[in-house]
Amino acid sequence: MSTNATTQTGLITGLHHVTAISSSAAKNVEFYAGILGLRMVKKTVNFDAPDVYHLYYGDELGNPGSIMTFFPFGQNIRSGRGGKGQSTYTQFSIPVDAVSYWVDRLGKFGVAIEKPFERLGETVIQFRDFDGLGLELVATDRDDRPGFSYGDIPLDKSIRGFFGSTMSVGKHEFTYDLLTKYMDYRLEEESENRYRLSVDGTPGTYVDLVDDPKEEHAREGGGTVHHVAFATPTDASQLEIRELLMKQGFHPTQVIDRQYFHSIYFREPNGILFEVATNPPGFSVDEAVEELGTNLKLPAQYEAYREKLEGILEPISPPDFVKA
Question: Would you say domain 14-312 falls under CATH 3.40.50.2300?
Answer without folding.
Answer: no
